Amino acid sequence: MLNSAKSTKSVISAEPEPITLDWPATALLIIDMQRDFLEPGGFGETLGNDVSQLAGAVKPIGAVLTAARDTGMLVIHTREGHLPDLSDAPPAKVERGAPSLRIGDPGPMGRILIRGEAGHDIIPELYPLDSEIVIDKPGKGAFYATELGDVLEKYGIENLLVCGVTTEVCVNTTVREANDRGYRCVVISDGCASYFPEFHEMGLKMIKAQGGIFGWVASSAGVLEAMKVSTT
Ligand code: C5J
After folding, report:
1. Structurally, how many domains does the chain consist of?
2. Alpha-carbon torsion (166, 169, 172, 176), positive or negative
3. pLDDT digits 0-9 by tens, 114-133
4. What's the 165 CA to ligand 1 centre distance in angstroms?
5. Best substitution site from 61, 163, 170, 176 to test ligand 1's pocket, by max atoms within 8 Å of Cβ?
6. Domain range for residue 101?
7. Strand 106-107 relative to strand 110-111: parallel, antiparallel, unpaired?
8. Is residue 19 part of a domain?
9. Distance of CA 94 to CAs 3, 119, 138, Å?
10. Which among 32, 54, 77 is the best mutation to test ligand 1's pocket, defined by most ligand atoms within 8 Å of the CB?
């Protein structure tokens, strides 16, 4: 008898090599697409960065987010930030460098990088649905001091489509944490961005080098093509 069961897998064209993903075991992880990083007056700008450098990632992420919602994929958003009393913000982080405003200082979008403030929220274009998971994280990696590991285990997730900002900081840290925990990470190249274009390029190279030492890198078009196949 022929097995008529539809496959739940398809292949993403990726570097260093194509990767086959089982879609029910795959989640979309969107890192820190917050006003504090992407808009003037937030944490990113207080550090002296040109925040317009991150804008290019919004549309590719939006396209994958729409496809993920259409296919019923688990969607997880993360937000970097701290409790209002800064009890989860190590002095070594707060005191670092010479920003124009420090974490916790009042700025045009509320207190810088503080949970509940306008700047801490996700940008309107990618705003989470009520049904989606939002993980608040005090560090750069999304696993450190969060419930992310438990959430992924609960939903039987083995693979992560990772995008967001910034490529070399929170995306890279999270991918490295995920890799050590046994997750296959496919990083969406045009769905990530950095204040430093050269760090974006190198951040992606570091992931896919040495046979994909931390994971795979694919374009949003490549991911969308594979997601289409998975639903036909
Ligand atoms: C940074 C992040 N760059 N989300 N955070 O401090 O990458």
Report:
1. 1
2. negative
3. 999 999 999 999 999 999 99
4. 6
5. 170
6. 24-210
7. antiparallel
8. no
9. 59, 17, 12
10. 32
